[in-house]
Amino acid sequence: MKNRISCSAQELNQLDADMLQSVVGGTVFEEGKQYFSAQRVKILDADQTQIMAEVNGAYGVYAQTIKLRAGTLSTRCSCPSTEQPFCRHCVAVLLHQFHNGSSLKSSAKGAYKDPPPPSDSRLWSAVPHAEESEGAGDLNFWEAILFIDWVQKAAGLLGKEATLPPVPDSLGGVAREWVGVLERLNSQCLESEEDRFDALKSLQSAESMIDNLTGKLDVLRVEAEVAQQNCRVLEKQVKQLQDSLAEISKTSN
Predict the structure, then answer these.
(1) pTM for the model
(2) Residues 37 and 57 in one domain
(3) What is the DSSP string of 65-96?
(4) What gap in Å lies between CA 73 and CA 90, rounded to an integer?
(5) Closest CA to 52 of 17, 22, 12, 10
(6) What 3-state class would DSSP assign to 243?
(7) Which domain, by its residues, includes 185?
(8) Nearest Cα residue to 125 out of 104, 140, 112
(9) Which of 89, 103, 102 is nearest to 29 (CA)?
(10) What is the pLDDT of residues 43-102, one digit of tens each?
(11) Are 123 and 67 contained in the same domain?
(12) Can you spell out the DSSP letters for 146-185?
């Protein structure tokens, strides 16, 4: 889910609880506050105007990207919620930023890193070996099947849709880490495309403005040439009047 609203704040950590509640309403705010209070927010990267985070929601881990640029607050969450103008997970992230923003400004990029993709050996460890017990083997094998099925559904949506397919509740461990990596990759791809689109719109707007100014300049140039011609005509008329006055003065004398 992606949304944009106008915002007068200059930095994200200026958005306090009262401001957030007035925007999203009491119900969504309380849900987000509970997530924040339960320490279910994980900041991956943050500065004064941008946050990348994860929230452990009721049905899985969701990725958030929040930006504050030129008076516009942009929020994106991988959850399927239709809450407006942004969801409870983004509320939780903004509350976290408000209460911890001063420390994040100087340490976020160094202190929070995306979890490294699991190695091949860790991924394959989800598939049971022949000598493992029957119960544990069935569980790991089933998780691997669920993960492969999810990846096949998500592959065609990467970079195209804000929300990837729902993650099965029983999926955990290494597979869950891979899901988080793919969701963040998808969010970053969409953000890059959004930035490219915004830049293209700005370029088109600038080109339109230049064309408009060029047209006005052409009109002013024509008007200036006409004014110059009128000035030359007036100068001739003034010269003729001066000559006439001189002749009259001689005749009078």
Answers:
(1) 0.45
(2) yes
(3) EEEEETTEEEEEESS----SSS-HHHHHHHHH
(4) 11
(5) 12
(6) helix
(7) 114-219
(8) 140
(9) 89
(10) 998 888 899 999 998 888 999 999 988 788 999 998 888 888 899 999 999 999 988 874
(11) no
(12) HHHHHHHHHHTTTTT-SSPPPPPTT--HHHHHHHHHHHHH
Residues 122 and 162 occupy one common structural domain: yes
Number of domains in the chain: 2
CA distance 76 to 171: 23
Cα distances (angstroms) measured from residue 218 to each of 207, 210, 211, 214, 231: 16, 12, 11, 6, 20
Asked if 191 and 218 count as a contact pair (C-beta separation under 8 A), the reply is no
Q: Are 9 and 16 in contact, with CB atoms under 8 Å apart?
A: no
Exposure of 56 by Cβ count < 10 A (0-12 exposed, 13-18 middle, 19+ buried)? Answer: middle
- What's CA 169's distance to the chain center, in Å? 28
pLDDT at 75: 92
- Statement to judge: residues 48 and 127 lie in one domain: no
Distance CA 177, CA 23 (A): 33
- Residue 64 three-state SS: strand
Q: How many CA atoms does the CB half-sphere of 196 hold within 13 Å?
A: 6
